[in-house]
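# nightly structure sweep
# worker-07 picked up a monomer target from the shared queue
# config: single-sequence mode, recycle default, output format = structure tokens
# input follows
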Amino acid sequence: MSWKRKRNRNGRNAHYSIAKKLRRESRSNEEFEIMLSGLTLEEVIALKLEMAAKPVNGRLYGLSLWSSLPDIARDAAFKFAYSATRSHKEAMRFLGMTPLYFNKLRWKYDPVSYFTENDN
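# output follows
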């Protein structure tokens, strides 16, 4: 008898996975994900910023980066909550939000369209 907890993945969010979406779009693979898991979140963000600044010789002027960071992190956390939970209610509890605030942010970040967009 196995004592492993089996997770029932039924629900509205059951088929959302950022890794699967990126693999389907050929933007990720298993080797890349293994390398990525060895980096801290701070290193990933810094590396991504460095790669964005390279084409413009390190000049990202006009971009209010500092004030945009909280929104970038919240968007990422919101998408993760959708991929890690089975329903909107579970995602709301996971993030520790009230239903009113969760629904407000759900319209702002629109995670469902991120996972359901057709590949063009």
